[in-house]
Amino acid sequence: IGARQGGWYAFVTEEGVAAPGELVTGAGTAVHWQKGVWILPFLSTLAQVKPALVVLIDSRTAGLHAYANGQLESRGTFRTTPHGGDAPHMGDAPVQGFHGGTRGETKHDAAQRARLSASRRLLAEATRAVVDAADGEGFVVIGGTRDLPAKLREHLPPRLRERTIVLPELRRRMPRAAIVDAAERGIALLRWERDRALLEELLEHSG
To answer: What residues have CB less than 8 Å from 95, skipping those under 6 apart?
Structure first.
């Protein structure tokens, strides 16, 4: 095999080698003999080289990162700030503690409404960005604060949602190395679930 960085495979029948070739990454050493084609290890090697998308979202910021081979590369950051401000209240001077945009609305209520509106805008922008970046293949790992990661996953199309995991322990302000470790755990869980589902499908079709 020599000094290849990847691996090597061969499909062999009773008549000899039917299809040898190289893998883009290592798959371990194994020999398996059975009726039919043994392909699960090769599917895993394909998944390893597909970049995953790591999304970190909080109430004001959503950051997208491509992950591959232990490296994170920024794919864009979205920021939003609440809109609003004082205006004349009912035609008179502003009343202390009230906001002029809505009759009887306190400044606290107005600020909360502005934050919710900004959070919805950020969620919509992040959803579009994730769909554009990962709608083909590859996994998506989402982390962040409060319920925003779960809401973001819920907004994704069903086929993409199946390839997405939310990690409660993943936060935007974590050290980069910790983000990489969490991303690898999430990808491993998604890959295991994908392989398990594929194995069940193969067993069902094989009778």
So the answer is: 89
Closest CA to 72 of 176, 197, 204: 176
158-165 long-range CB contacts below 8 Å, 24 or more apart? 160/130, 160/131, 160/134, 160/135, 163/134, 163/137, 163/138, 163/139, 163/190, 163/194, 164/139, 164/140, 164/190, 165/139, 165/140, 165/141, 165/189, 165/190
pTM: 0.66
Beta strands in 35-162 (DSSP E): 52-57, 61-68, 71-79, 140-144
pLDDT digits (tens, 9 = 90+) for 26-58: 566 777 677 766 666 665 555 555 679 999 999
Closest CA to 144 of 185, 179, 112, 184: 179
**What tens digit of pLDDT does each residue of 67-92 get?**
988 899 999 998 886 554 433 333 44
